[in-house]
Design a protein that fits this description.
Layout: H1 2-19, H2 22-31, H3 36-60, H4 74-100, H5 103-110, H6 113-124, H7 131-155, H8 161-183, H9 190-211, H10 224-252, H11 254-260, H12 263-276, H13 282-299
Helix pairs in contact: 1-10, 1-12, 2-10, 2-12, 3-9, 3-10, 4-8, 4-9, 5-7, 5-8, 6-8, 6-11, 7-13, 9-10, 10-11
Length: 316
């Protein structure tokens, strides 16, 4: 049990690192003339290709089996369709929030979702909020505040109600996605879910890219640097973290996954410092340590503790 918890924690941190990269990568891509929806299309599209290859290889080796149509209940089909749609909307809502208000403000609003997950897990997954988890939540959010507050103060960001509303919408949808994954989607294997969570948003993004005129062939890739950026973003920033995140949820549950995903912000700040020259202050470094410490505290074994999230799939 402890080994599974450690593996799950590592996988979630890997996924957080991957998901923390696209913000900086999209900014670099924008400098070369690539629009945001074109970037999202490439990221999700390449993620679809990679996860599709993984699914095909596992099917050929008999490691997973596609469920028959009759084996998926109406409830599971609804849950799967909901999480696919919400996954697509979350990214679009956050991008629009970034255009309306400061990135720091939007991130603070978005990262209210771990608290929403903890509350939802207590209600729907039987995962109670004990004193240790409450303390970990408080420590994690305090650290997150230290990470983003200096950036907000430095830029003098104003709070736009529409931008805040979009970020809070993304937060609520992300919490719903995590809770749906925590409950599972019936007999659908994890890798197939990861494939769908890249493929369906990719179709949505390419439609948006065409609608706003960002889709001339080859969909915004006009330089070798852009080709490398979208390749890296699709594999390291989409495919790998998608697979790692779903498996991590299986092993450690929705609430702990949500809290460990706060590490995404730490990675985003570090990426911005290295590639965009946005150096973290001492307070941001302290905040990053607090975020990591909150995850470590949450993983300390407690007597009688058990994993409460239902498996997404028994085959993986």
């Amino acid at each position: 049990m402890r080994r599974a918890g450690l593996l799950g924690s590592v996988l979630v941190l890997i996924s957080a690192a991957g998901f923390g990269m696209p913000g900086t990568l999209s900014r670099i891509a924008a400098e070369d003339g690539m629009g945001p929806f074109a970037f999202l299309t490439w990221r999700a599209g390449l993620g679809t290709v990679v996860t599709g290859i993984v699914v095909a290889a596992m099917l050929l080796r008999g490691l997973v089996a596609l469920p028959s149509r009759g084996s998926i209940s109406g409830r599971d089909r609804t849950a799967l369709a909901t999480l696919l749609l919400f996954t697509a909307v979350v990214n679009v809502a956050m991008f629009l929030a970034f255009t309306r208000t400061g990135i720091g403000v939007a991130m603070i609003c978005f990262y209210t979702y771990p608290a929403l997950v903890a509350l939802g897990a207590a209600r729907f997954l039987g995962d109670p909020i004990d004193r240790g988890r409450a303390a970990a939540l408080a420590l994690g959010f305090a650290g997150l505040g230290l990470v983003v507050a200096p950036a907000i103060l430095a830029t003098g960001a104003s709070v736009d109600p529409i931008g805040v509303g979009l970020a809070l919408l993304a937060s609520a949808l992300q919490a719903t996605v995590v809770l749906l994954l925590g409950r599972g989607v019936g007999p659908v294997p994890t890798v197939v879910t990861a494939f769908a969570m890249n493929a369906v948003p990719a179709l949505c993004y390419v439609a948006l890219a065409v609608a706003v005129g960002e889709a001339p062939f080859p969909l915004g890739v006009t330089t070798d640097r852009l080709a490398l950026i979208v390749l890296f973003s699709g594999i390291v920033g989409a495919a790998i973290p998608s697979l790692a995140n779903l498996r991590g949820i299986e092993l450690i549950g929705a609430s702990r996954t949500a809290i460990l995903m706060l590490f995404e912000t730490v990675v985003a700040v570090a990426m911005a410092a290295v590639f965009l020259g946005q150096r973290p202050s001492a307070l941001q470094i302290v905040g990053g340590v607090c975020v990591l410490l909150s995850g470590a505290v949450l993983q300390l074994p407690r007597r009688g503790q058990r994993l409460v999230a239902n498996p997404i799939s028994p085959q993986v």
